[in-house]
Amino acid sequence: MATTKQPNRFRPSAKSKHHSHSIRENSSSTADKANSSNTPTITWWQFALFGGGCTVGTAFFLGSSLAIQKSGYLVLPLFALVAIVTYFVYDALARMTANQPEKGSFRTYAKQAFGRWAGFSNGWVYWASEMLILGASLTALGLFSRFWFPAVPLWIFATGYAVLALLVVILGSQGINKAENMFAIVKIAAVLMFIGVAGVAVFQGGKEVVPLPKTTDAWLKGGWTGAWKGLLYSFYAFSGIEVMGFMAMNLKNPKDAPKSGRIMLIAIAVLYILSIGLAMMFVPIESVTQEESPLILALEAIGIKMLVHILNGVLIIAGFSILVASLYGVSTMLVTLSEDGDAPKLLSKSWGKRKLPIYALGMNAIGMSVSILMALWIPKQIFEHIVTAGGLVLLYVWLFIVASYLKLLKPSVWGQVKSWFAILILLLAALGALLEPAGRTGFWTSLVIVAIIASVTVGMQFKWKKEEKKTA
């Protein structure tokens, strides 16, 4: 564990001090404020369960197929590597949260570390990434549903799930926390069921079982280039940890955040590696497609049709839970941007007794509508393109989380080693998208998104300077 060399409070830079949230004298006052709100506090194990609900979803169940296609058997050690790096990123966020909980989570920390421009751009980059990831989730849900109803157009399913997700978010964070915990239990139970069934089938040694390679050459069949290509999609399978930053305000003891994430990520990494490893013993790599989960393909090979349908239902539940969690997180982000003056004031206005951010949800509904239109216009390979672009933009947010941690907490040597290692692997994952034509579309799309936000940020800086002169 890394220890910090500074007292447990953040100090905004001179550039950000005027516009940032007032920094409380200690983190306990912030925690007390959270505890006194209408949202009940949660324990560390409930928070870990919530994290599992945010992470295990379509990004794993369907996104893993992309990682397998690119990396072959090397996807298994890749998952182990990515789990470690994901923990380093999460640990950086969790330590900042334990030090000083903030409603705006990593966006607020970026602002405190580097100034208002960082908070503004980080918030909007995250919003863009979540719109793409929401689109990927809607697409995956549509693909899973078409397993039963192949004649129904993809966009109809996407529209239906988008409306349902908006309705669930209306219940508020208390409802989401309970729902995510329930969904997490269902998803984890389904993965364990698959591991048990596939494990028994392997033990019985049917003709459909193909043992994992025993030679280095067989493992490296796709080459190191293939592993590099699959690195991004392996990270995508762990996307969702950043949403935990928003819910961390509800932790009974914010200092439990690092422990919760560590236990959650270890458990998820073991489940991922075991389930995908077993699936690859029943499904040849060349048979893996972007339209079906490798776990579904494996159960079909084993020949248990009832379990195929049960698992497909769980995949829909898993995808929907991620959709709801992402929608909650990005809505919270829009509200904090608005409250900070970095988005239209309208977006922070609430409605009704639940103080629902109706305008923020409306903006997110527009973003999801764009994804639905994309599903209507370009249904072929849309999942890979959206995943690539969304995954890349999310990695940029993760890079900022680590950079903010380095600036604010100034960790010990071990903390710096972990952080710089994470930065290196994240950059390698982003560059891996350039190795093939399909990935380049998403790569350049992500850069266009970042370039647009950067241009707007530069324009906003002129506005902020004028405002400073008027108030000086």
Describe the structure.
- Residues 25-37 have a biased composition (Polar residues).
- Residues 50-427 form the Amino acid permease/ SLC12A domain.
- The chain is mostly helical and 472 residues long.
- It has one domain: Amino acid/polyamine transporter I.
- 73% of the residues lie in helices and 0% in strands.
- It is globular, with a radius of gyration of 22 Å.
What keywords describe this structure?
AA-permease/SLC12A_dom; mainly alpha; membrane; 472 residues; L-asparagine transporter-like permease; transport; transmembrane; disordered N terminus; Amino acid/polyamine transporter I; globular
Number of domains: 1
Q: H/E series, N to C?
A: HHHHHHHHHHHHHHHHHHHH
Gyration radius, in Å: 22 Å
Q: Output the number of helix runs.
A: 20
Q: Biggest β-sheet, characterized?
A: none
Percent strand: under 5%
Bin the helical content.
over 70%
CATH class annotation? Mainly Alpha
Give a nutshell description of this structure.
This is L-asparagine transporter-like permease. This protein is mostly helical and 472 residues long.
